[in-house]
Every structure is written in structure tokens, then in C-alpha cells.
């Protein structure tokens, strides 16, 4: 599926090159512990009024710029996690800073309308622009508030379409209308969404039923009896483990087929399948193009719908705007959800998934026109600066460097994987992984966890080769300390 990486010896010599963002620092600069005394005090202050157990540090977003996060203690950190993969252009990009100096755009932002019923007069033009520029071969778009909301709402589109096929052109019966209100069939039919072990699709209750990563996200919450399929777990390097990985594909696909049959017998048919092109938090787990082609065939044979969750993978970090473009599917998926790097959340979908009556898929705001303005600027900068090409070039350098480090530190590091700059690698165990993460932070590098013992890279699209060299050099120092 992914391009083979040719290993070559690289010396991680830091070179200070021109940045895509003016006035960016030349490298990390750590003055205190991380988190430092100011961050620790602020966490204590915040904790008086709000639970703050997840807080790592406090950012100074006035000083942060480009690929560098400046924290409350003035530590300058090379941010390889970019606010959980949400910053396509890094911090304080000049093209974004000037957006709301325009009064018309400012008024669009502060008069945030209920777009479903009172959209601004420029809304048709803005929506058409988005569909024409970035739609993944799907004709319709629906904007939402966040990624979890997008996934949760697209399930509704799937259920509506599935029931419409079953019902035909007939309207709702009186029994359906009455039972829907009290959560009983036939108005609230027994249908389900199939998802995969290791998938993360959000933390609203419906989306949470399809999320299968950490127990802490789910424990104590009632959920739905929805099927959970096995997702392939590849061995690396890919070219040395082709036979084993093909068997992983077969194992997963057979389980999907089995679950379709099982839930049909239970009279709770699978209406749709949601899957990440590369599982993010679950471990940066990937599967082949052939796997996804076969998965789509299974879904279509069962008259269900395929939803790609591209909340992490969409927007360019894999080197394509949509990661599923790598799969060469014979027909487009039925829906693709997005958020994070897009500033606004939502999903593209087929005509078949379009609701046939108003207020069936609805909330107060239906997106945010101010965030759409930001997305328009992001798309413009991506094109002007050829950021997809930049991602492929820098990603190749990063992956090559990580493979070399894996060879040098094979006893503690393995399974370098991913595409573009959407990369990850494993550390020998969870405890050592957390030690490496802490040491990297202390040296001025921010990474994210994934899976049982993985570390994931999610840099901004403006991340360049000299940033990669800085990171690889610091990572080598840390691995040497842990050896």
C-alpha cells in the first residue's frame, strides 16, 4: 500500500534553513522543567474551578509561532503533535492572522447564525466552493461542530438511507411515529454500525459505541450492542512480512463477513461500517489498498454503507488530501467525515445518504461560518506553498531517519510505519515509551502516544526537512540515554 522506503545513512546534523513561517525560532529552547513552575501553578489554579487532570502544560499562544509551541514558562518546544493533529499551518500563520481584519469576515464570525434555518446570503457560494475544491468525489456536505458530532450525525444519514430502501416510497406509519418517541421499534429500529478494534470515532454516546481504544473513555457509560471487527495488525517492515500481513487482511475480512451474518440473524442488521484509513490513537494501524477494496465489496453485498473517518488522516498529512485516495476504490465511499485540520467539522456524503425531510439531521449551528473562512485560507495556503508535496518530501526524510534509528536501537524501538508525516513507531514497552516521551519533552519536543507502546508524529503541513533533522537528532540522544 505504502511506498517502500529505501534506507540510506543520514547524519542528523541540524541545519537552520528558511522557514515557511517568518520569524520562526531556529530550534527548541528549554529553560525549566516541562511542565515548569508557571504551568504547574496555572494547573493548580484551573483545578479549583475545573477538572484539569489531563492538562500537560499551558501554552503562550501569543508567542507560539510556526512549528513551535511556547509554554507559560517561555520554553520553546518543537511541536510534533500540533494540538492533537489540528494545526495544518502551525501557530499564528500570517495568512490566518489577517483574516478577521476584514469587517465583513469579522461580522460573519461574531454573528454566528443558526445555519440550518438562517444562513448568511454568502453561504451557498461558500459551501459550493468547499465542495468544488476538496470534496472526495461526493456531491453533498454537512457541517457540524466537532469530529464526534460529525461521526454521530453521519450515522443518522446511514440509518435514514437504510430504512428508506426498506420502506420504499411509503411514508411513516402511525406505529412508527408513536414508537420512535419512546425508543421502541419499529419507529426506533434495531440497526447497528460496525466498527473495528482500535478505532476511535469520538466520545458522544453514539460515537463512543464505535470507539474501542482506552477503557477510561468508556467505563461507567451504558452503550449499544454494536459489532466490533478485528482490524489487521501488520508486522514490519512491510516488504519482509508480506505473507503474514496478507493473512491479517484475510482474518479481518472474514470477521467482518461473520459479523454481518451474525447481526442479521439477531435481527439487528448492520446498516453501515465506519473505519479510519489509518487508525490514529489505536496505534497508527494501517491496512493495504486491497484490504479496503475487499471491505467495500463486502459492505455493498450486504446493502450497507461505508463511512471513512478522516478526522485525523484528512487534510494532507498523508501526502494526499484524503488518505483513502491511496486505496484506488472502484467507487467512492458513501461518506467521509472530517474535522481537526479543517478548522470546521462535518462530512461529505452521497446523494443516497441525503435526508428526505427537514430537521432529521440538525442542530442549532450546523457548523461555524467563521471556521469556514479559516478553512478557505488554509486551502489557499496549501496550494500556494505546495504543502502536499512538502509533506511527501519531509515525510520521506522522517521515515528514512526513523528506520535508521530503529536499526541502531533495535532493542528498544521497532515498527516504523505510516505515510507522509502521519508516522509512528513502537518502544519496547509502555513504561519505557512514557520515559522516552518525557525525555523528549524535557529536550523540547512534543509527541503523542498511540496504541499500547507507540509514539505518533502529527506535525503541521509546514514542517520542513530541517525540523525533521532537529527532531531526529534529539530522538537519537534520548534513545541513547535509554539504551
Automatic annotation (TrEMBL):
Required cofactor(s): pyridoxal 5'-phosphate
Molecular-function GO terms, alphabetical: pyridoxal phosphate binding; transaminase activity
Protein family membership: Belongs to the class-III pyridoxal-phosphate-dependent aminotransferase family.
* Record's protein name: Gamma-amino-N-butyrate transaminase
**A Pfam family for this UniProt protein?**
Aminotran_3
The source organism is Zophobas morio
Coiled-coil ranges from the UniProt annotation: none
Indicate yes or no for the key word Transferase. Answer: yes
Mind naming one GO cellular-component term on file for this protein?
mitochondrion
Gene Ontology process terms (BP): gamma-aminobutyric acid catabolic process
The alphabetized UniProt keywords are: Aminotransferase, Pyridoxal phosphate, Transferase
Amino acid at each position: 500500500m505504502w511506498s517502500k522506503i529505501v534506507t540510506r545513512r543520514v547524519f542528523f546534523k541540524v541545519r537552520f534553513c528558511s522557514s515557511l513561517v517568518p520569524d520562526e525560532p531556529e530550534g527548541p529552547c528549554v529553560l525549566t522543567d516541562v511542565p515548569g513552575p508557571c504551568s504547574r501553578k496555572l494547573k493548580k489554579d484551573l483545578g479549583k474551578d475545573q477538572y484539569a487532570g489531563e492538562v500537560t502544560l499551558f501554552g503562550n499562544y501569543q508567542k507560539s509561532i510556526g512549528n513551535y509551541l511556547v509554554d507559560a514558562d517561555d520554553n520553546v518546544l518543537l511541536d510534533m503533535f500540533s494540538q492533537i493533529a489540528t494545526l495544518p499551518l502551525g501557530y499564528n500563520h500570517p495568512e490566518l492572522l489577517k483574516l478577521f481584519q476584514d469587517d465583513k469576515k469579522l461580522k460573519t464570525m461574531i454573528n454566528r447564525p443558526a445555519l440550518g434555518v438562517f444562513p448568511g446570503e454568502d453561504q451557498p457560494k461558500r459551501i459550493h466552493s468547499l465542495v468544488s475544491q476538496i470534496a472526495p468525489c461526493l456531491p453533498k456536505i454537512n457541517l457540524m461542530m466537532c469530529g464526534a458530532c460529525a461521526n454521530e450525525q453521519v450515522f443518522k444519514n446511514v440509518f435514514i438511507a437504510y430504512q428508506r430502501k426498506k420502506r420504499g416510497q411509503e411514508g411513516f406509519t402511525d406505529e412508527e411515529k408513536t414508537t420512535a418517541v419512546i425508543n421502541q421499534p419499529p419507529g426506533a429500529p434495531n440497526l447497528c454500525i460496525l466498527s473495528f478494534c482500535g478505532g476511535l470515532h469520538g466520545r458522544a454516546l453514539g460515537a463512543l459505541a464505535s470507539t474501542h481504544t482506552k477503557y477510561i473513555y468508556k467505563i461507567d457509560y451504558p452503550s449499544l450492542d454494536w459489532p466490533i471487527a478485528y482490524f489487521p495488525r501488520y508486522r514490519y517492515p512491510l516488504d519482509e512480512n508480506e505473507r503474514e500481513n496478507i493473512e491479517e487482511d484475510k482474518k479481518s475480512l472474514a470477521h467482518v463477513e461473520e459479523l454481518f451474518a451474525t447481526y442479521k440473524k439477531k435481527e439487528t442488521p448492520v446498516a453501515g461500517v465506519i473505519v479510519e484509513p489509518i487508525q490514529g490513537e489505536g496505534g497508527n494501524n494501517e491496512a493495504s489498498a486491497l484490504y479496503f477494496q475487499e471491505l467495500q465489496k463486502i459492505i455493498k453485498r450486504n446493502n450497507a454503507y461505508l463511512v471513512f473517518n478522516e478526522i485525523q488522516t484528512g487534510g494532507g498529512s498523508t501526502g494526499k488530501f484524503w488518505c483513502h485516495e491511496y486505496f484506488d476504490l472502484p467507487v467512492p465511499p458513501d461518506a467521509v467525515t472530517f474535522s481537526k485540520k479543517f478548522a470546521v467539522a462535518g462530512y461529505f456524503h452521497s446523494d443516497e445518504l441525503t435526508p428526505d425531510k427537514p430537521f432529521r439531521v440538525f442542530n442549532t449551528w450546523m457548523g461555524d461560518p467563521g471556521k469556514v473562512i479559516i478553512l478557505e485560507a488554509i486551502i489557499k495556503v496549501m496550494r500556494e506553498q505546495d504543502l502536499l508535496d512538502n509533506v511527501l518530501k519531509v515525510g520521506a526524510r522522517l521515515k528514512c531517519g526513523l528506520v535508521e534509528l530503529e536499526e541502531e536501537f533495535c532493542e528498544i524501538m521497532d515498527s516504523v510505519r505510516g505515510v507522509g508525516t502521519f508516522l509512528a513507531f513502537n518502544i519496547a514497552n509502555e513504561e519505557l515509551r512514557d520515559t522516552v516521551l518525557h525525555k523528549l519533552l524535557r529536550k523540547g519536543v512534543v509527541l503523542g502516544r498511540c496504541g499500547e507502546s507507540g509514539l505518533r508524529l502529527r506535525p503541521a503541513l509546514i514542517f520542513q526537512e530541517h525540523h525533521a533533522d532537529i527532531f531526529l537528532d534529539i530522538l537519537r540522544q534520548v534513545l541513547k540515554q535509554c539504551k
